[in-house]
Amino acid sequence: MTKLGLIGVGYWGPNIARVLNQSTQCEFSACSDLDEGKLEKILRQYPSVRGFTNANEMLESDIDAVVIATGISTHYELARTALRRGKHVMVEKPIADTSAKAQDLVAEAAKARRLLMTGHTFVYSPPVIKVKELLDSGELGDIFFLSFSRVNLGLYQKDVDVVWDLAVHDISILLYWLGEAPIHAYSFGRACIQQAKNDVAFLWFQFRRGPVASCEVSWISPQKMRRICIVGSKRMVVYDDTDPSEKLKIYDRGVMLRPPATFGEFQLTYRMGDVVSPNLASTEPLLNEVEHFVRCIQTGTTPRTDGKFGLDVVRAIEMAISNRWRPAELITAA
Amino acid sequence: MTKLGLIGVGYWGPNIARVLNQSTQCEFSACSDLDEGKLEKILRQYPSVRGFTNANEMLESDIDAVVIATGISTHYELARTALRRGKHVMVEKPIADTSAKAQDLVAEAAKARRLLMTGHTFVYSPPVIKVKELLDSGELGDIFFLSFSRVNLGLYQKDVDVVWDLAVHDISILLYWLGEAPIHAYSFGRACIQQAKNDVAFLWFQFRRGPVASCEVSWISPQKMRRICIVGSKRMVVYDDTDPSEKLKIYDRGVMLRPPATFGEFQLTYRMGDVVSPNLASTEPLLNEVEHFVRCIQTGTTPRTDGKFGLDVVRAIEMAISNRWRPAELITAA
Amino acid sequence: MTKLGLIGVGYWGPNIARVLNQSTQCEFSACSDLDEGKLEKILRQYPSVRGFTNANEMLESDIDAVVIATGISTHYELARTALRRGKHVMVEKPIADTSAKAQDLVAEAAKARRLLMTGHTFVYSPPVIKVKELLDSGELGDIFFLSFSRVNLGLYQKDVDVVWDLAVHDISILLYWLGEAPIHAYSFGRACIQQAKNDVAFLWFQFRRGPVASCEVSWISPQKMRRICIVGSKRMVVYDDTDPSEKLKIYDRGVMLRPPATFGEFQLTYRMGDVVSPNLASTEPLLNEVEHFVRCIQTGTTPRTDGKFGLDVVRAIEMAISNRWRPAELITAA
Amino acid sequence: MTKLGLIGVGYWGPNIARVLNQSTQCEFSACSDLDEGKLEKILRQYPSVRGFTNANEMLESDIDAVVIATGISTHYELARTALRRGKHVMVEKPIADTSAKAQDLVAEAAKARRLLMTGHTFVYSPPVIKVKELLDSGELGDIFFLSFSRVNLGLYQKDVDVVWDLAVHDISILLYWLGEAPIHAYSFGRACIQQAKNDVAFLWFQFRRGPVASCEVSWISPQKMRRICIVGSKRMVVYDDTDPSEKLKIYDRGVMLRPPATFGEFQLTYRMGDVVSPNLASTEPLLNEVEHFVRCIQTGTTPRTDGKFGLDVVRAIEMAISNRWRPAELITAA
Q1: Buried b (16+ CB within 10 A) or exposed e, A222-233
Q2: Residue B27 C-alpha from the chain's centroid
Q3: Does C253 touch chain D (CB under 8 A)?
Q4: Which residues of A touch C276 (CB under 8 A)?
Q5: Are B116 and B104 in contact (CB under 8 A)?
Q6: Which of A205, C107, C278, D217 has the least CB density, counted as fewest CB within 10 Å?
Q7: Residue A89 contacts by C-beta under 8 Å, 6 or more apart in sequence?
Q8: What pLDDT band is residue A154 in, cutting at 50, 70 and 90?
């Protein structure tokens, strides 16, 4: 059975430990963390796991693959070392803090002939998968636009701003759904509480085939929102992740332009059909993700969120941040 | 008593007729429309009103003031004529279809020493007024950002796109609340159904004192949203106009940065207090607006949404539309 | 065309006047009210209608049918007179203030060979009709129970208590859906604000074929609720009349008892399918109702809510009120 | 430090184990379960705890107190034994399956001079405590009525019906808030899926000082509801436990009867004030409860939900079930 090691059991790592232990597809074999206390706690819960305070030592053991759940700034070094040691690697999102590093990891994985996957968990969640099916089946028609809101109060991150922390989720969902990277990206934001670190931001994306997308992310909004609206020419979808019972709603609604007949001008008609909230699988996204990683290792398949996918997400973030509002270049009020 | 005439009883005009008749502050004296059928219907309901199929004729009668509720493209000519005939004028929003025309109307009103008001009805609605009070009292603290969503399915307009139709409301609210015009404005949108006429758009605004704002407007979204979120340093407010019972919620919440003490680094603390949904007056915004117009005429006061205010709204729209996403100028994906 | 007269244009009557005028199936021919001011207002809006301050005089005119929208206590006398004058009669709900009088009206109508209908408007509303279709098609399976909540703050009625004012709606819906009158009915309530007039009440009903129902009605609850839950063996429905966009939700959910196999005991399994919110016709219930009345007159069909139906509703109310909580007869705490 | 033992780590017990371990007020010292596998799992998580497969053996050890989280039918025997061994006892709700047994436990505790507490967890939850404060402070005025809805789909219990499973929570809350037991109780229900075991039930309660209460409980409803509405003469409260952010809403609303002045009859006026959703402590009810138990042991105080309280809850259930709908005794439809 595929033996997995885990690097980092701070904030998110313990959840990965839990699903590694829960899965019947792999063996949770080793675990490392610089913090002995955190490591101890994990080892007590999973007595058969070997513990390391040095990740490099663990990477020299007989594990087949490794999951990296450390701070973003350490992703690149750890993933590169693991690939060079011949391990398959799953790195938490974002894959790296620059696209250059992400690009380099993709090259390293190719050279090492090892699998590189990015832990974009939302791509493995039942509602996101369901929407992907609707998109691929053509049921939604052509996609006109998507609107994302991911806001709440609190949980400021230390090392990154709100775009790297929250928009990364929406961008991964967007790229998975549309199957392409944006050709243009733009952003606008404000650092309200801390100097030089945006806690609210708005992003816009343009895709080659037509769709546009808007994304609002904030750590400083009074109501929690986790809402995505997808508008297609045939159907529309609202995915509200805060709704405990009806996360997805599919609207059989639309507007159609009828060619001019006797009337001499184009006519708009509105179509109002049923709303369907499909029953969704209750499997945990993180378990799906880890088992997808293991299955790809076992079958030699390319993961849904491989290194290239992780790179595209980082590129989209960088593009949006580069195209930040620069007033001087714009036409301003007289 | 101040005698009022009404030009245009098509889509919105009948509502103005109703409140002109209802108000005890003025006399609904005359009414004109090119369409005799529509005019007839109004005259039957309000038998004491004189009817005209020619607006110019009505403007020569003894009315003191006129409300113009015709198509946008005719606002300028009618308002100018009315001002030149010495009538006080209230024009429906937007005041004109270009800022040059709006500017001209402001000048005409000054020359004629007549009152010019723009019918930005939301500025006269109880929740919007309540938020203005909170802002002016300092209860919300410094304003960090505002986020507007005004979307639904349908009600495409013939003569204008979605920015002129819907964003005009949000911009009027924004200018009223902040008491200043934006220094920068930007927009991004798509014409999904009709050629060259956006039915979904996103706008961003920057204000001199710091606040930023985002505004999403759409005619092609499955769920109706009429939601504004205002985030201040002391309090936050959500105004949801689709909520029949609790339109406003005031959140005593925030994030604070504590200077470094013994810890060596800045500390973030979250404040979580009560949520209050204030009871709001149930007066009709349109009646408030019309009576405000009449009171301003009677007392010589400048209306809250005078010609200059209407001009600022048109300028903000024009600025956002000019600064439309122009991909060639932007850094794009490699 | 069938000529209709209307008696009573106080609180509810003007709405009936509006739809009588709007309908192309009948002629709104005459109108009466004791209050000359109210009558005047209606006559000005509908100039072709003849006005009467004496209902009996109107009943002697050439109208074919009459709608009675007066206070409950006057229903009986007016309806009886109208039937005796050979008019078809639609009486507002409840048909009379006692079942004896209701019974008598049914007999009068039979004797006069005239149509007698009760104005249970909800029975003509699109969501209620849609549920009836689901019930009749067998899609919901056997009905286990129904739970009604009709509560809000205010609108105390002068002449009746909360059961006669609000529960009358739920009972009409219940009888229409189940197609039978309850065999047992019970009630429990309290007069909170006024002496001897319940402003909150709970009712229970038992039906011969199995279903049970509970109904909560109140004039003194902080949140408005207009909610009905229908639980069937195959599907469940929630009808929330306060939801502007998804009034009906059909749940493909259930619990099933599997016979004991190897396990030795009965197994419960839960079925969780999709939720569908059907698109509903947007026709106005009151217009549907009035046109149903006219169509029944023209075709000689029995109305859905005929006199007998109105009588059954009154009987159910009387039964529930008679079986009021009487502590002395019950087993009480030691 | 007070040493605690836990009997039963099946469904609910592991949660108690967690808070016993988490609390700094007591020592989680011993644990017993008939099922070795379940016991093992707990002992691995809490290595310092001694394990027993025989509860009686554990009761002979040096623990000071015991928490009983076994099936309802075993509560009585286990609690009696524990009291006789001189242990303080906290029993999960309901304290016993008959009031006779509950009464006996109260007597045993008195004889043994040991503390007996019932685990009515809701009584220790922040929203329920907040409402109790509002009630005791007089802020709500006189209580007119309370309406409870506790319904959802699934989680059928093996040993008890829906009244013993779900209504027990509402009754504990009701008795805590009002500070008295009901003088009358009545119930109505139906066994939809299984023979002779109600899965939906409605209960009514009458209290000596005036308040009435209604309670709907169901295992077979499509939407989850955890809603309590409290109507007082001065203020009204809605407690919706499914709302993640605003569980409590306090309505400054009411109806008042003004004595007749010049008008000759009583006038009703409606008061519509603000709605306040107080920020609530985020402490876990179960931890509160366990620490309350420990504190009462240490200080000799009577617990809020002592044996007598648990007995009153069982009596109220028994009274409601005895006064079940018995059609033959009631006036029925002709």
Answers
A1: bbbbbbbbbbbb
A2: 25
A3: yes
A4: 274-277
A5: no
A6: C107
A7: A65, A66, A68, A79, A82, A83, A109, A114, A115, A116, A117
A8: confident
Q: Does D244 touch chain B (CB under 8 A)?
A: no
CA-CA-CA-CA torsion for C92, C98, C104, C110, nearest 10 degrees? 40
Give chain C's domains with CATH numbers.
2-119 (3.40.50.720), 123-285+318-322 (3.30.360.10)
Question: Within 10 A of D263 (CB to CB), how many other CB atoms are there?
Answer: 9
Would you say how long chain D is, in residues? Answer: 334
Q: Which two tokens stand for residue B20?
A: 């002109």
pLDDT of residue A257: 83
Instruction: Return the sign of the alpha-carbon dihedral for residues D51, D54, D57, D63.
Output: positive
Count the helices and strands in chain B (H runs, E runs): 10, 14
Cβ-Cβ contacts under 8 Å for B274 (sequence gap 6 or more)? B252, D276, D277, D278, D279
Amino acid at D330: L
Report the length, in residues, of chain A. Answer: 334
Strands A2-7 and A65-68: parallel
Contact C222 D154 (CB under 8 A): no
Q: How many Cβ atoms from other residues are within 10 Å of residue A2's Cβ?
A: 17
Phi, psi of B309 (to 5 degrees): -65, -45
C252 and A CB contact within 8 Å:
yes
> What are the structure tokens assigned to C53, written together?
């301050």
Distance CA D134, CA C271 (A): 42
pLDDT tens digit string along D225-244? 999 999 999 999 999 999 99
Residues recorded for chain B: 334
Q: Are D58 and D52 in contact (CB under 8 A)?
A: yes
Q: With 0-12 CB in 10 A as exposed, 13-18 as middle and 19+ as buried, what is C34?
A: middle
DSSP string of C38-60?
Answer: HHHHHHHHSTTSEEES-HHHHHT
Q: Does residue B246 sit at the D interface (CB-CB below 8 Å)?
A: yes
B325 interfaces chain A, CB cutoff of 8 Å: yes
Q: What is the pLDDT of residues B100-133, one digit of tens each?
A: 999 999 999 999 999 999 999 999 999 999 999 9
- CB-nearest to B224 from C223, C242, C245 is C245
The pTM of the full predicted model, rounded to 2 decimals, is 0.93
Cα within 13 Å of Cα(C171), Cβ side: 33
**Containing H/E element for B253?**
strand B248-258
Report the distance separating Cα A148 and Cα A139, nearest Å.
21
Of D88, D71, D97, the residue nearest D13 (C-alpha): D71
Closest residue in chain C to residue D318, using alpha carbons only: C333
B309 in contact with A at a CB cutoff of 8 Å?
no
Distant-in-sequence, close-in-space partners of C244: CB < 8 Å, separation ≥ 6: B224, B242
Nearest to D333 among C183, C214, C238 (CB): C183
Nearest CA in chain D to C189: D212
C277 touches chain A (CB under 8 A): yes
* In chain D, % of residues over pLDDT 90: 86
Q: From CA D31, how far away is CA D19, in angstroms rounded?
A: 13
- Whether ipTM tops 0.85, in short, is yes
Residues of D in contact with C222 (CB under 8 A): 229, 231, 236-238, 249, 251, 253
One-letter amino acid of C26: C
